[in-house]
Amino acid sequence: MNASPSHRPHPAEWTETQSLLPSAERDLPAGRHQFHKEQMMARIHEDLRTSSRTSATSSRTPATSPRTSATSPVAPVKRSNPFLRRAVLLPAAAFALAGAVMGGLALTDGADDGGTALATGPALTTRIGAADAKGAPQLLERISLAAADTSAPTPRKGQYIYIASKVADTYVKTVGDKSEAVSNELHSRQVWNSLDGRDGWLIEAGQTSDKGITLKSDVPFSGAYNALAGLPTDPDALLQRIYRESDAVRDPEVPRDQAAFVAIGDLLFESYPPPEVGAALYKAAAKIPGVVSVDDAVDATGRHGVAIARESDGERTEWIFDKKTLRFLGERIVVVKAPADSLLKVGTVTHTSAITERAVVDAAKQVPGQVS
After folding, report:
1. How far apart are CA 62 and CA 222, in angstroms?
2. What is the pLDDT of residue 98?
3. Has this prediction a pTM greater than 0.85?
């Protein structure tokens, strides 16, 4: 079904600029952390039986994808380093391979897992907020203080971190010799992770069945609460660790400072860091060259806020915060520079997300307020 304006919140913020094409093979942009791409790459590497490559390329953002499907025979995708994201790790050749096989895998994954393919619609666009390099340190200091001053409960052994969000993406889809910018419909995600990162559950509209898929693994997820609690709270020591971890695995074409910025953003999204660690992450981000503040940015649900951002390769990654409380709202990636012949024009939102709920619950698949 085509995504229509009525399916998109706040159409004034997301201008529909492209028309829908029939379903077909599509090219995948780097940096979009979506379930189907992770599962696809897991299957590719399982088929190739190259365990060393699998370890390198299946690393991801916290709780973004399954380690194994509830119904398919795919080998578990190992969750390892919290500082890794596909935009940092994978060379262009991997994305070329992904684009070549994506169409068929998307169809079979939907049939296997009971999910349905997301509708695709026109590209998402937005107004680009003004950036201020001098304003970033002061804003990050205020955000850090707000993160440290929280009354959020401390999780107990046996509990789970629950994150609910809304996400959408714009990418280039190719049909034969014709390509066009289209978008995945805004949809919901629910992720549960145990404190040690060995157990969890994912439900994502259009990507999993209504019941979801397991995130169980014997390999601890380093972005889980216990691992985050063990990170340094000294900003300098924390940033050095982030650089060290991302340097070991990033694609050489990705700038070192951008890899570190992306890594911190990934730790902020589907995670629940202790207050002192969250505060340290923001102070560490202030030390990365090229980080700016943005006067206005809009998350996936249409909430306006201020942003901390960094530009790389023509795209600006923005962490969005409430203007009053400075609470983290979500993230978006916006094209700010593009060649004249690019299908992803300036102002295109290639990824947008919004955290709608973050809580501690007593069991996987339990929603806040529900008795276990």
Report:
1. 8
2. 33
3. no
